[in-house]
């Protein structure tokens, strides 16, 4: 039977060293392994492949939709507080949304955006 065991996202970055350091220090990822021009990072079953692309336009400069991942999780308030303490760039503060999710968003140094969400009871309209 088909089963998805994890996802792996590929990000082209100009400065692989500083981007990797941000993922490790600010977002709590760990290094799975490195090969020339690539850094493979993980946060539980969420995997990132950073590719060194020195001529790439940073995501924040494209003026396009720079979201690349939405992470469904549990204990969202815990990771949110941790990211605040670590100094992560939080572009959307944590809030309960009318579509039944508690969400917040972080951005990387080059402007890639990650949303985190946890299921909650839908908010009433009263």
TrEMBL record:
Q: Cross-referenced Gene3D superfamilies, in alphabetical order?
A: 2,3-Dihydroxybiphenyl 1,2-Dioxygenase, domain 1
Q: Which InterPro entries match?
A: Glyas_Bleomycin-R_OHBP_Dase (IPR029068), Glyas_Fos-R_dOase_dom (IPR004360), VOC_core (IPR037523)
**Which parts of the sequence belong to the VOC domain?**
3-119
Chain segments annotated as transmembrane: none
Q: What is this protein called?
A: VOC family protein
């Amino acid at each position: 039977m088909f089963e998805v065991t994890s996802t792996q996202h590929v990000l082209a970055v100009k400065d692989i060293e500083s981007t990797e350091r941000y993922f490790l220090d600010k977002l709590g990822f760990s290094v799975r392994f490195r090969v020339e021009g690539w850094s493979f990072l993980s946060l539980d079953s969420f995997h990132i492949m950073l590719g060194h692309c020195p001529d790439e336009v940073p995501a924040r400069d494209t003026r396009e939709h720079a979201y690349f991942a939405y992470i469904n999780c549990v204990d969202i308030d815990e990771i949110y507080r941790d990211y605040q303490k670590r100094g992560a760039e939080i572009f959307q503060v944590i809030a309960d949304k009318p579509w039944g999710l508690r969400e917040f968003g972080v951005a990387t140094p080059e402007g890639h955006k990650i949303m985190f969400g946890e299921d909650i009871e839908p908010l009433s309209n009263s």
